[in-house]
Design a protein that fits this description.
CATH topology of the largest domain: Nucleotidyltransferase, domain 5
Helix content: 25-40%
Number of strands: 13
Low-confidence stretches: 267-272
Strand content: 15-25%
Largest sheet: 7 strands, mixed
CATH class of the largest domain: Alpha Beta
Order of helices and strands: EHEEHEHEEEEHHEEHEHEE
Mean pLDDT: 89
Number of helices: 7
CATH superfamily of the largest domain: ATPase, nucleotide binding domain
Distance between the termini: 45 Å
Number of domains: 2
CATH architecture of the largest domain: 2-Layer Sandwich
Length: 277
């Protein structure tokens, strides 16, 4: 903001302030003891003002853009995604399933300690009304499918994973833990390794691939349940996006395991799809 406005405005937004690691969510101000602990002279620092995320931040300085434009909002990326997906009330969450798992949960209007293994974060503040969120990174998702295809050679393409997983009613007692790079939120055990349980003579490739999808879904459930225990508010709607959200069978598995509505937001067809438990 300082550079965009040519030095006229020295400020940041509420959503971005929480990322710096020295913002006090209880007092809603800069937490100088953190800096002093790092042997930084906090008294000599000039902290930026923390404004609402939708606020008058001035105008761009001459020469930065072809015309001078008003700066009316400044929103951090994950928070912007949550708002775009209308995760704006308690009981609603979002999950991005790309190479990894990224979950954001609406945590209410007051700061509270994050559940063990998750982190609390400033959500956004409009007209003085504050929202906080819980975030959790669950490890591998689409990258597990890539491993199955490229390293193990079990399928020729990703569509085959869905087709085979959908061809069986369940995983036949097989349980797959997708900890190929350790176990992330809410456990954070880097020594954990991927594991397959329950193999039998009747296990087929289809059972293995369905167990793979179920294992990724269970990791999402781990994060959601940790957040629910802290907020006391059961999840009623989960909006999902990213590459794996294109899988209808995975979305249905996730809806069945969470016991809630799973709604896909990023699809090529502009219509909206939802899976119900």
């Amino acid at each position: 903001m300082y550079r965009l406005t040519g030095g006229q405005v020295y400020a940041t937004s509420f959503s971005n302030a929480g990322v710096y690691g020295c913002y006090d969510g209880v007092e809603e101000g800069w937490y100088r003891p953190v800096l002093e602990r790092l042997q930084i002279n906090a008294a000599a620092l000039r902290f930026p003002a923390v404004l609402d995320d939708m606020e008058n931040y001035g105008v761009t300085a001459p020469g930065i853009l072809p015309v001078q434009l008003p700066i009316a909002a400044v929103l951090a990326d994950q928070q912007a995604e949550m708002l775009a997906n209308q995760v704006s009330e308690a009981g609603v969450g979002k999950c991005t399933l790309s190479t990894g798992i990224f979950v954001g949960i609406h945590a209410g209007d007051r700061f509270r300690p994050a559940p063990k293994g998750l982190k609390n974060q400033n959500g956004w503040r409009f007209d003085g009304q504050t929202v906080y969120i819980f975030e959790g990174q669950g490890g591998m998702a689409g990258s597990v499918q890539q491993w199955v295809k490229e390293e193990l050679g079990l399928v020729a393409d990703y569509l085959e994973i869905d087709a085979l997983a959908e061809s069986v009613p369940d995983a036949g007692g097989v349980l797959f833990i997708p900890a190929l790079t350790g176990m992330m939120a809410p456990y954070w055990d880097q020594s954990a390794r991927g594991t397959i349980f329950g193999l039998s003579r009747s296990t087929t490739k289809a059972h293995l691939l369905r167990a793979l999808l179920e294992g990724i879904a269970y990791r999402v459930v781990d994060i959601l349940r940790a957040a629910e225990r802290e907020t006391g508010v059961p999840l009623r709607l989960l909006r999902v996006g990213g590459g794996m959200s294109k899988s209808a069978v995975f979305c249905q598995i996730l809806a069945d395991l969470t016991g809630t509505v799973v709604e896909r937001t990023q699809i090529e067809d502009p219509s909206r799809w939802a899976w119900h438990c």
